[in-house]
Design a protein that fits this description.
about 260 residues, mainly alpha, about 75% helix, globular
Length: about 260
């Protein structure tokens, strides 16, 4: 039996060992991983920003490509974490038994989960940094405040890794993972302020969007990249921290139950 205390995420050498294992596994296929998680946002930036952007007036006072660039940076961080944690987490639990092997070693479920969060935070930072370099090369980074981006990117890693791990722990097959992407990830991608401000949407729609995590990540990232700050960003930052703290607990119980079976 797995004790309840053993399922609480905690920092330890065990978590670092999980991180190390994931890094070594990723290093064997990092090229295809970069293409999959980085290619779509970059394509959207080039096609929409420099294609459609020539026909679109300024968005919120800045050129269209400068508006969507930071939004796509947030999407890159989200996708890099969500796809990896959902599909790899499912396989580690159901296909290759990696999670089961981990807890038979001197490793608790809590340490396993914390190790996953640590890896996904670094993964979010890694892919986000690559996209920052692209934005900088295109002249779309307008503020030195962009140097602060690693902090929200790493918080984003936890925000999206936790619900993805929860979904992976509950899914009975790979097909069920796509429900999460279709019903939650794709709508957030389209309606969280990445491509247009949400101010002209119906009130009830805005209320729903404000409750989603990507909306707040987009606001913070866009402010740091463009140097446009306003009081509401404090609210966005608070939301991100609360989301990360609450979401981190989401998979604890269900993953502990699955591993105890």
């Amino acid at each position: 039996m797995i004790k309840e205390a053993e399922t609480v995420p905690g920092w330890s050498w065990g978590a670092l060992m999980v991180f190390r294992r994931n890094f070594l596994a990723w290093s064997k296929y990092y090229k295809s991983s970069v293409i999959m998680n980085f290619g779509e946002p970059l394509t959207n930036l080039l096609a929409l920003g420099f294609g459609l952007g020539t026909y679109v007036a300024k968005m919120s006072g800045v050129p269209f490509v400068a508006f969507i660039g930071p939004g796509l940076l947030a999407v890159t961080a989200m996708n890099a974490v969500t796809f990896d944690m959902a599909f790899e987490g499912y396989d580690r639990l159901n296909e290759n038994g990696i999670y089961q092997a981990m807890i038979t070693a001197p490793l608790t479920v809590g340490q396993l989960i914390m190790g996953e969060y640590l890896w996904e935070s670094v993964r979010s930072l890694l892919y986000g940094t690559v996209f920052i370099v692209v934005l900088t090369a295109l002249g779309l980074v307008k503020s030195w405040w962009a140097l602060m981006l690693p902090f929200p990117l790493m918080v984003t890693g936890v925000m999206f890794a936790a619900p993805a791990l929860w979904v992976a722990s509950r899914a009975k097959n790979h097909e069920q993972l796509f429900y999460y992407f279709t019903l939650f990830i794709t709508p957030m991608y389209l309606f969280s302020g990445v491509f247009f401000p949400i101010t002209h949407l119906p009130g009830i729609v805005r209320d729903v969007i404000v409750m989603t995590p990507l909306f707040h990540v987009v606001n913070i990232v866009r402010a740091l990249v463009l140097g446009h700050f306003y009081r509401g960003l404090l609210w966005d930052g608070a939301w991100m921290l609360v989301y990360a703290g609450l979401f981190a607990l989401m998979p604890v119980h269900v993953l502990g139950q699955r591993l105890a079976e």
